[in-house]
């Protein structure tokens, strides 16, 4: 779905008032339809009655009923009472009920609420009508306009005004849409006295031809340093090739500049996948919990979101891949960096970031990560006393600013996990093998035990020092 936002400029104030009146009637129609749907009315009965009641044509009424039905279903899916839906916004309504707000501040809130409640209009696109019958884009010599049906064979024209140089491409896209006769939906909204339009075009993608059948290309985005790490595998999950794409332009510059380069980097990733004939694996876009343990907790999560719009870049990769008929697989991102750092970085002598991309690739192929036997032996020999000793060492280095306070939190959690297993007879810490010790607990404790004792100067992003532990099991050496 492509959505384009634009502002309207009316030729005269009278035309604007006519459209505002239409929006008010349509909004009332939608709210009325919502209440009748709650009472069990069917669409056909509503459609017949509402046209005369609100002086709207059949299409406008049908769209109002559809929006009302959508709001009703959304409330039920979210587990909220449909009868308690407040049009205009519950938060704004709640603020208006507070008695300590008065004067200009109260009037400002009331206007905003009324605009959200009454300033709406939605018109669906129709393929048989070559676009949209009620709200049609028309390209004229003096600009691009929206022709709005305001009554029986009565129309008002509003200039579609981007307002800024940066929106020039959007205007050109609207012209292309108007000339191609593809269906598009239009939603009008009133904000701060101005009317804005949101044009939505559902893009038709070609059939998926490049799948994970021959393997995948997976990516790992890194906030520091700004780069994309990628790894290529065959269909069995074996590592074939890898690389890094630096993204210095996303660390600074204007919003438009960063947006431009996000598209460029997305094109680069899709180009690699297309040339190699591989599907693309990315981390799941729906990441909501900033405090979740794992790769996307706290500070890193915020950096990724705000420094270079992590979600925006992945979304662009998805869009471009679909246009090329390339399969896109989303996976759970939890612990991909930790697993890559401890298992594959020393094994293949690659960086932590490329190793994380490799873990993402294997997840996309449905491969489970077998924990190396030497790591299991190492952790079975680890004691709470040793971690307590490590904790005291870290406290000193934190005071000297060689390690960060977060390392203390990680050690405390590791100690807590091991203490919870003290009571289990014949403690065998083999994840998913009849104990309460999960795979994620394993990797968390292992990270503390083998990485924290090494100073940041030694570790950085090169984990080759762990190879002897991983391969030869030399875990009793200092």
Automatic annotation (TrEMBL):
Keywords: Coiled coil, DNA-binding. It comes from Caldanaerobacter subterraneus subsp. tengcongensis (strain DSM 15242 / JCM 11007 / NBRC 100824 / MB4) (Thermoanaerobacter tengcongensis). One of its GO terms (molecular function) is DNA binding. This is Transposase. Residues 384-424 form a coiled coil.
